[in-house]
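Inputs:
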Amino acid sequence: MIVTNTETVAGYEITAVRGLVQGNTVRAKHAGRDIAASFKNLVGGELKGYTELLTESRREALQRMLAQAQELGADAVVNVRFTTSAVTAGAAELYAYGTAVNIEPLPQD
Amino acid sequence: MALEFLINLIVFLFPLVVFGLIIGRTREKRHLRRLDQFDAENRDFLVTQIKTFPGAVRSERPPVLVVAEVVIASDYLKSWFAQWRNLFGGEVRSFQTLQTRAKREAVARLTRQARALGFNALCNVRIESADVGGATGDRRVPMAAVIATATAYQAAPVS
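Outputs:
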């Protein structure tokens, strides 16, 4: 499955559009991470726990989106976008959406 | 808010500000130096936020989506400066540099990923602020969180 956040795919031609596919996940961070974060807030620096949380959520959302695309018989998802929103204190949603399409390599010239 | 601020000022503030001043400042400087070095080493790597593929060449491998997340915490000095700013208004410089660092780091990570996959260009770079629940939570943790996405592809080498 080819996935891009551009509207086209270099070297390929879109032959059919299958429609919008989406995947989301809502995750809460556990208390340990919050405590580590409050320490980090004294000295600055990367909050690795939160970065990992985002990475996990993104992978999950993307996977769900790709599963939908597979079901539609698509072989690529283009124009993928991510958004996040806060659902409640301590939990955030990560949402991935894109357009499932069929593509074919452009003929060599 | 004002009362909390005063209590902070008297009891905790001094050691914490010194802590932030020394460690936070050193960390920020080191991070910025690392980013400058990274930029200097990657001048041959094309990064654009154009939706099409500038300079794309035919390649066996199709373009690939790359995603990077960065969450950087503020230090106590920065947060303290921001609280002062809150009283008088104006640009919060200490948080501005924090945001810049997060965004530059995100693009650096995208570049690193694309390079590891054997590509030499990124297009359609999109940087978005993320919410990991801290900003709206009751424990307000000042931080810069971003998700950056881009498409890695093969371009004609930049001279």
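Remarks. Residues 13-41 of chain B form the longest helix (29 residues). Chain B touches chain A through 52 residues (CB under 8 Å).
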